[in-house]
Amino acid sequence: MRAEIARLRAERKAIILAHNYQRPEVQEIADYVGDSLELSIKASQLADVEVVVFCSVDFMAETAKLLAPDKLVLHPDPRAGCPMAEMVTPERLREMKAQYPGVPVVCYVNTSAAVKAECDIAVTSANAVKIVNGLDADTILFVPDRCLGAWVQQHTEKTLILWPGYCPTHNRILPAHVLAARGAHPGAKVMAHPECPMPVLDLADIVASTSGMLRLAREDPAAEFIVATEEGLLHRLRTENPEKRFHHVAGVALCPNMKKITPEKVLWALQDLQYPVDIPADVADRARRCIARMLEASK
Ligand code: CIZ
Ligand code: SF4
Questions:
Q1: Which of 72, 93, 168, 238 is most buried, taking the most CB atoms under 10 A from its CB?
Q2: Residue 205 near residue 191, CB atoms below 8 Å
Q3: End-to-end CA gap in the chain
């Protein structure tokens, strides 16, 4: 199967991108592994590539299509969605905006293109604090993650109005899991993703995005870490730092949607050019502006 994937990848002038939460066997067939924004930027920069197979959930493949509109972006399983992203719809967001006229709307990248089209600026978990603090407003609507929003609120003087969305996977992680992991691995540093609930973040040594955790694992002198995020990240942490030890905080944080992508589906995507990501032009233009403002503000 790997040989056939490699043959088709060359024939189709394709590239395979995999999110940090993908299954190890998918990460291993990918040309690049990263967070959603890194991968989307990568897709837009590869001039000689015609087809992008984006192994992740649907809004991430949409972001790649927004940044690389001339390429054929394929999502190997369109049923792999993100329940947190689905907790906000353009219709409900417009109702909320009507209650707060003039208040800027900041969206986490974990939103559909249709929702981004309704927002002023996007953020990732890595740049959210910087971007919120740089906005010329005292009150901000923040969608959809109330956990990331609560964490940003701790690092800003501005008032955030939080949409009540959350990541079901990160919300499975409980303070008791962190305490048990610390008991089992005394001396290990705890890193937690800001999609975790606040009582978990309060127990962490470091709060970071997936790219932040990868950087920390490389640069921090600690030899042992407890990792509170989706377990797919452990594969990269361990491969890139073979001399260090990484413990997943609990066996409960697996994203079933990220795990829907398999090497077989990547092969079928390349064989049948399935499933193309298509975003209506007017939505795409507005959503692209929302992301472009983020890229400008995070420089
Ligand atoms: O944007 C991403 O890739 C997500 C959701 C996670 C992260 O922290 O990188
Ligand atoms: Fe969505 Fe959470 Fe899965 Fe990320 S881990 S894709 S936020 S459900």
A1: 93
A2: yes
A3: 41
Q: Return d(Cα 39, Cα 90) in angstroms, integer.
A: 25
274's tokens: 């399935």
CATH 3.40.50.10800 for domain 2-82+258-278: yes
Length of the chain in residues, anyone? 299
Q: Specify the residue with its C-alpha closest to ligand 2, atom 1.
A: 82
Strand, helix or coil for residue 276: strand
| Residue 77 to residue 56: CA distance in whole angstroms | 9
| Whether residue 299 has pLDDT greater than 90 | no
pLDDT band of residue 279 (cuts 50, 70, 90) is very high
Please compute the mean of the pLDDT values over residues 274-296 and round it to a whole number. Answer: 97
**What is residue 172's DSSP assignment?**
G
- Whether 210 is in the pocket of ligand 1, judged by its Cβ within 6 Å, is yes
Half-sphere exposure of 208 (CA within 13 A, CB side): 17
Dump pLDDT digits (tens) for 92-127: 999 999 999 999 999 999 999 999 999 999 999 999
The protein residue whose alpha carbon is closest to atom 3 in ligand 2 is 255
Q: Which CATH number does the domain 170-248 belong to among 3.30.40.10, 3.10.20.90, 3.40.50.10800, 3.40.50.2030?
A: 3.40.50.10800
